[in-house]
DNA sequence: CGTGACTTTGAGCCATTTCAACACGCGTGG
DNA sequence: CCACGCGTGTTGAAATGGCTCAAAGTCACG
């Protein structure tokens, strides 16, 4: 019995395209790994040596300028795929935000396996297309939205993406009304292209205006989703 | 003899994965179309009914907010692929910036054809991964760069991407030192997340500082590439 | 409890936007 | 052939949103 058989993301990750025989072969070239919060799996500009599936946890994808400014260019959740198959270099760093478990493959092994399994490549293509759509939508936020709109949009996005497949406490349409942010204020700023101070001020303003509540530093309660959506522009 | 046999992007577009028999089949489900500058091929939010290959010309991909702010989320050139295969809706509008020729397919037909031709899907995956990398790099610009850095980065990007496979007048490393922008000032602003006035001021500043020259509204000459690269941050 | 990292709050400043006027180029028609 | 008008781009002055710098507050952890 391979590790895949008990994998919690087995039916959602790209692996779901494989039958048990193929899964066994994939399992043979991969290995599990856990990451502590803040630990990186790959670095920007590095040779693309690894790819992986996220089993558990939240990770950020980030790039930066030489003088230290950082931009988070993506956030990945369980069942998401990370790394750059069929390419020579990694365009962004990958760092765990929470404790995380991933299923890692040497890129070369994965590439070879994928080329022999069109159904796997098809899943990967679907995922990549969806991620590209999502990324492009985020560009509208970065380029054209005000700080208030950015923060409101961010909170709504989080309330949709932090839903665990098996978790309680979300509204009928699958959106959380209360959640714990996997980001520090600085990281929120790095997602939104703002400074930490501006993010903090917007949080307190949204709270003061009754749209959200902030029981603790990382906890967020969406009190008035409609108003927050209006604020998001 | 099918239209594909004389296609100028035949060897660079995703079609290059097909043999002549397959190409004939693909040709049977596609048709050519020309677009005037400003003409749209698809609209944001619309059902995904078409996909296409760009044969000639430059097109923009753009999204906007309800209140009319616009963000250009991508620019496509000859041999690039457009549209959203395997998905129900189009996330962004596609509009010709120059006169353009495209090779259009009904999405359903294309999807079916692609699923039967793994080599084609593989090419599409490679392209999509590369586009995602590029898009993520652009997020750093949108989120973290100043107006001066944005404009300088933009000009350098243009000097690399406007190179025609068969054109003269580029430096040894395949970068143009003189080119004609396919964008109006407003469109440059929409790519960079700035206002038209800020773009104009940065253009004149870069010219005043001797990094570029502007022989006419659309023409750009890169005089000091090194200084421009430093300016790009 | 004390220490250090993270967050909030405040005050002033500056880059970019906003609003407004003007310039340029180009096609049209008198 | 020139005057006119219109779309596009430039320039200026003022307003402002978000940033910078600085200080105080909060929380987790020893």
Describe the SSE topology.
2 copies of one chain form a homodimer.
Chain A: H1 20-29, E1 30-35, E2 40-42, E3 50-56, E4 59-64, E5 70-76, E6 81-83, E7 93-96, E8 100-106, H2 107-115, H3 118-144, H4 147-161, E9 178-180, H5 185-192, H6 196-208, E10 212-213, E11 219-222, H7 225-231
Antiparallel strand pairs in A: 1-8, 2-7, 3-6, 3-8, 4-5, 4-7, 9-11, 10-11
The structure holds a DNA duplex (30 and 30 nucleotides).
Please provide a written account of the structure.
Two copies of one chain form a homodimer. Chain A is an alpha+beta fold. Chain A contains seven helices and eleven strands. In chain A, the strands form three sheets. Chain A has a four-stranded antiparallel sheet. A four-stranded antiparallel sheet of chain A has the order 2-7-4-5. Chain A is globular. The termini of chain A are far apart. The A-B interface holds A 61, 63-67, 69-71, 73-74, 84-87, 91-92, 115, 118, 121-122, 124-126, 128-133, 135-140, 142-145, 192-193, 233 and B 61, 63-67, 69-71, 73-74, 84-87, 91-92, 115, 118, 121-122, 124-126, 128-133, 135-140, 142-145, 192-193, 233.
Quick overview of this protein structure:
Two copies of one chain form a homodimer. By secondary structure, the first copy, chain A, is of the alpha+beta class.
Tags for this entry?
homodimer; Jelly Rolls; Arc Repressor Mutant, subunit A; four-stranded antiparallel beta sheet; 7 helices; globular; DNA-binding
Largest interface summary: A-B, 43 and 43 residues
Order of helices and strands of chain A: HEEEEEEEEHHHEHHEEH
Question: How many DSSP helices of chain A?
Answer: 7
Largest sheet: number of strands, sense, barrel closure of chain A: 4 strands, antiparallel
Distance between the termini of chain A: 50 Å
Radius of gyration of chain A: 19 Å
């Amino acid at each position: 019995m391979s590790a895949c058989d008990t994998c919690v993301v087995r039916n959602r990750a790209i692996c779901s395209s494989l039958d048990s025989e193929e899964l066994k072969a994939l399992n043979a070239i991969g290995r599990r790994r856990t990451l502590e919060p803040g630990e990186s799996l790959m670095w920007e500009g590095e040779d693309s040596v690894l790819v992986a599936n996220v089993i558990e946890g939240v990770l950020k994808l980030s790039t930066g300028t030489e003088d230290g400014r950082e931009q988070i260019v993506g956030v990945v959740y369980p069942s998401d795929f990370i790394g750059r198959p069929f390419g020579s270099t990694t365009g962004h760093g990958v760092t765990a935000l929470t404790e995380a478990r991933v299923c890692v493959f040497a890129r070369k092994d994965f590439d070879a396996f994928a080329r022999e399994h069109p159904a796997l490549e098809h899943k990967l293509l679907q995922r990549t297309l969806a991620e590209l759509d999502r990324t492009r939508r985020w560009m509208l936020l970065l380029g054209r939205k005000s700080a208030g709109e950015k923060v409101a949009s961010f909170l709504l996005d989080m309330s949709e993406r932090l839903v665990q497949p098996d978790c309680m406490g979300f509204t009928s349409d699958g959106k959380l009304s209360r959640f714990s942010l996997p980001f520090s204020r600085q990281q929120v700023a790095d997602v939104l292209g703002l400074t930490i101070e501006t993010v903090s001020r917007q949080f307190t303003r949204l709270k003061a205006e009754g749209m959200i509540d902030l029981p603790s530093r990382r906890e967020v309660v969406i009190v008035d989703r409609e108003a927050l959506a209006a604020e998001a522009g």
